[in-house]
Amino acid sequence: MNAFDIAVVIPSYKVTRHILGVIAKMGPEVARIYVVDDKCPDHSGAYVREHCTDPRVVVLEHAENQGVGGAVMTGYAAAIADGMKVIVKVDGDGQMNPSLIPAFAAPILNGEADYTKGNRFYDLEQIGSMPPMRLFGNAVLSLMTKLSSGYWNLFDPTNGYTAIHAEVAKRLPFNKISRRYFFETDILFRLNTLNAAVCDVPMDAVYADEESNLKISKIVTEFLAKHTRNFLKRLFYNYYLRNMSVASIELPLGLALILFGSIYGTTSWLAAREAGISTPAGTVMLSALPVLMGAQLVLAFLAYDIASVPRQPLHKRLRALAPDA
């Protein structure tokens, strides 16, 4: 694995206790380490400059706090400008083992994926170390992320251990990607609109003395609203703007039939109840049949959507189209 291929981005915010240890564990396969001080109240950028002697380290500082997404985007831009090939994002709190960097970079360097992310749910023995509230939150978010991003093959969407090919990162809309806690799931939606191939990398769940700022209220309010927005955008982009298929008809027709059957059945039952008579069998069938047909059409759409997960790496296609390829 070529050391000139891999760069690491470390968002730095209230991680002064751990960040030097994280940097010290970076192997020789890493060519450049970008520490992004996101207006850290502990002045972690200055702390790294003063105490770290690793020549690979470059400290970048934000004048204003932009959140983890903003810090990662700053690191991506710097790595792209420096000609890096694979950009790995590692948190500075010590939860992510730097020895796994080759495992995250390998599928990209081998031409198997454009983006890799960690999955802490592969080893059932390790799941027991995850706090119950995080376990529940990840399960809920994983389902919502599958719907909104279109990557039905992925799990553990809030896992921040990721790697991306620089050619694919160049094509991300940096100014549109969520800057804060929704960053990891929002970038999956953006990658799907590029038709990029994404895969999971197994890793252990590690929770030490770090301080989490992710609240359940964000899952049920802000996250739900953003997932719904991304789901609707993805449907429009993939099934109506860029392409039309039988699935483009199945979903709206299925929903229309379910809505019609539900409304007709409810109003007929209420009218019969008001009149003091039983609802006629024909009316029941006339309301139930559209619901059943609609459900079948929605399920057919989901089957098509699951089968449409991007498999061919985008960076290989881009290289083939390059003038000097």
Overall pLDDT score: 88
Helix content: 40-55%
> Major sheet, described briefly?
7 strands, mixed
The fold-level CATH name of the largest domain is Spore Coat Polysaccharide Biosynthesis Protein SpsA, Chain A
The total strand number stands at: 7
* Number of contiguous helices: 12
Would you identify the CATH H-level superfamily of the largest domain? Spore Coat Polysaccharide Biosynthesis Protein SpsA, Chain A
CATH class label of the largest domain: Alpha Beta
Q: Could you provide a short overview of the structure?
A:
It contains twelve helices and seven strands. With 325 residues, the chain is an alpha/beta fold. The model has no long low-confidence stretch (mean pLDDT 88).
Keywords:
325 residues; alpha/beta; 2 domains; 12% strand
Task: Please characterize this protein's 3D structure.
The protein has 325 residues and is α/β, with parallel strands linked by helices. The chain contains 12 helices and 7 strands. Strand 2, helix 2 (44-51) and strand 3 (57-61) form a beta-alpha-beta unit. Helix 8 packs parallel to helix 9 (216-241) and helix 10 runs antiparallel to helix 11. The longest helix is centred in the C-terminal third of the chain and has 30 residues, at 246-275. It is elongated and about 85 Å long. The protein starts with 5 loop residues before the first strand and ends with a helix. The model has no long low-confidence stretch (mean pLDDT 88).
